[in-house]
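Reviewer has doubts. Consider these tokens.
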Amino acid sequence: MYGEVVRKFDGDIHTRYVENITGEHPKKMFSMFKSEVYHNNILYSCERICINKINGLICKRSDRQEPTLVGFNIKAEDPRLIVCKNEVYIIFNRSRSGTTLPRCMAISQFDNWKPITLEVAGVEDDVRTRNEKNWTPFVKDDELHFVYNFEPLVILTYDFNEEGQCPIIYPSSDTILEETEGTYIRGGSNLIPYKGTYQVGACHSRLKGKHITAYYTHIVILDTSCFDVVYLSKPVAFRHEKQDTIMARGPYHYNEWYRIKFVREIMFPLGRLPMTDEIHAIMSPCSMYVMNDKIYMTVNVQDSLTFRYEIYLEEIDLSDPKNKKPESLNLFTRQAVDEMVALVPVKSVRKQTKACCFV
């Protein structure tokens, strides 16, 4: 069975495990979703952390000893980092102040914490009640952009206005935003320059089945000259060269721990999150960046850990017919993940309530 699962991963995308970069803090209950970016010989990181049952962010620079804690008053979560106009910015989601509405997106300079709530400009008021997460940031012509949705593709831009208004520039300013809750492909990391007008990054798939919820990482390439997704990979295999065992505190019940094992070279997590009946397999991308001519990606594992990988994209051949853009990105994603989930031995795995097992 495991051999069949391994063959369902994308054969053109190769990864190498570098290290577990999950942060430590004396007061933390858990930490997860750590993003990184390398700029002017400094490695910046920002991670979601829970202290006293409240979520916020912990920010650190490699040239400074002490980290900074921010965003607890707005319950900041799931940060992405981007460099624009020679400044490092944090893009994250937050609670809406003074309301019970779902979460919204926000931005702040890394070194000058002044969060601005981001809104899609020109939309109806009822759209603002939606849960906004997973905007994918990228920079084109020195201007900040976001992929709001991959299918149908919607692109926003932001000029750092204090009102946080982000106009839709693709397909058009009068585009009607569709509900994204039912989509299978969602934002993940930032995008970085790749080849010519192409930018590359990682998105994540989400599939909720009868007994399992699966989040996988997929490489995506966007042609920024015409705003077109030209490539989407099958799920990426995260490889480990040696066996390892890691203990990690789970986020949904603060007294539970996961025992993380790497039994074979490819990570394939299956574990039941505390307080739920569903099995979860979570490998979602946080960030992508270049450091010393190598491409790195950070990955959220089981909402408990962040691992750093080196990723190799040289074997992606866009002229190969098998890499032709699928007619439907959502359908392609669902089919790819469905094929993997169908092989999961649900009954035997469900007995393991605290363990995330890797094959």
In short: The longest helix spans residues 329-341. DSSP finds three helices and 26 strands in the chain. The CA atoms of residues 206 and 352 lie 22 Å apart.
